[in-house]
Design a protein that fits this description.
alpha/beta; Rossmann fold
């Protein structure tokens, strides 16, 4: 049996406080964010390869982890976070103050209430899923780490569990440096695992 293990870790806290960061806001990790990431990974990492979003809040840590653990890493552009259009870089308070109930509508129905210029949620989920399937094919039988974003974890969760995107966005909270564990057995039907480190 050549089971493939694909873990996905969300980046740690970025500099700049709480705001909407899609793929055009490239804040680096804060000091706290770096510590969150190192605290989340095992002392002796067990991954065969690391694949990262190109955004610095992911890529800088992926480079450091690859260097300290002696494994290769790849930058994958399609692992970048979803685009938030006109909300990029803005705080929730700013949006509430200037756009009425737009934020509340977005939270309740993120598929149909995207900010102006935002990437469609279904298109985002499809591009992320294409990466996941490609990783499974290219790294069959290996244990791989994806360093990415909350949106990426939600998209993969939605596909594996067959959950509507609205549900994973409104009901699934993903903390900084959280790790989602998935496995793909020989039958190619991915599974999600909840386990202790």
């Amino acid at each position: 049996m050549s089971e493939t293990r694909i873990d996905i870790i969300r980046h740690g806290e970025p500099e700049g406080g709480q705001r909407y960061r899609g793929h055009s806001v490239d804040d680096p990790l804060s000091k706290t964010g770096w510590q969150q990431m190192w605290d989340a990974v095992p002392e002796k990492p067990h991954w065969d390869h690391i694949i990262t979003s190109p955004l610095s809040r992911c890529q800088k840590f992926a480079e450091a982890l690859a260097d300290t653990s002696g494994v290769g890493f790849t930058v994958e552009d399609n692992l970048k976070e979803i685009g938030f259009g006109t909300w990029e870089g803005r705080t929730p308070d700013d949006i509430k103050a200037n756009e009425g109930d737009a934020l509340q509508k977005f939270i309740q129905d993120p598929v149909n209430n995207r900010p102006e210029g935002a990437e469609p949620l279904n298109s985002f989920a499809d591009r992320v899923w294409d990466v996941y399937q490609s990783v499974n094919k290219k790294h069959r039988g290996e244990h791989v780490l994806l360093v990415a974003h909350a949106g990426v974890i939600r998209a993969i969760t939605s596909k594996i569990l067959g959950m509507p995107l609205d549900d994973v966005y409104s009901k699934l909270k993903i903390e900084y440096a959280a790790i989602a564990t998935t496995r793909v057995p020989d039958n190619n039907k991915p599974l999600m695992y909840l386990s202790a480190r």
